[in-house]
Amino acid sequence: xxxxxxxxxxxxxxxxxxxxxxxxxxxxxxxxxxxxxxxxxxxxxxxxxxxxxxxxxxxxxxxxxxxxxxxxxxxxxxxxxxxxxxxxxxxxxxxxxxxxxxxxxxxxxxxxxxxxxxxxxxxxxxxxxxxxxxxxxxxxxxxxxxxxxxxxxxxxxxxxxxxxxxxxxxxxxxxxxxxxxxxxxxxxxxxxxxxxxxxxxxxxxxxxxxxx
Length: 212
Ligand code: HEC
Prior knowledge:
two-stranded antiparallel ribbon; binds heme C
């Protein structure tokens, strides 16, 4: 340290006062040939600094000490919890009022059918065909035909159809995935109404293709 001081003192000269612009004060100290201004910082600059410090203290107390301000993750989780609770409530409400009769009636409700048709023709047609026959251009698609008299699951009852769409195949790895998560109970009800609109209820409560 002492060496440095000596070196700089020898090799550099101080700026003369006359050479400075008016109002500029220099520090006496020279280091590596550099002399520093000794100016007061502008007030606007200082104020932004002070405001920042005050803000920091307030924020620090509110965020870390009292937890008044929630992080993005916490807010997201809260929002998701609200959505989840609403979905659960909706599901319970829909399912609680649902039976074969109610679903059968919905399959005659044009608003339900057209909402379900939209879903079917975007989500389900790839495996079950645009006309529910599980074929496309003569080729067999992976799904089961939904416009025939044969129901693999749920004994052909409306609630049986609802349950397989909600929960998927008994073995989802080989069959069909569950659509409860993607469509919600309401979406599933609509799409089932659309499927059943191609059927009519027989005396034993099963859905059979219209006119057969
Ligand atoms: C990735 C292809 C695929 C998609 C997409 C798909 N399914 Fe399926 N679906 C299948 C398969 C495969 C089966 C037969 C499952 C089995 O045998 O376990 C099936 C079976 C069904 C059954 C039971 C049929 C019966 O005879 O009991 C219904 C009802 C059904 N799907 C409705 C739907 C609806 C509604 C959608 C759209 C929300 C949909 N599927 C989307 C492949 C699909």
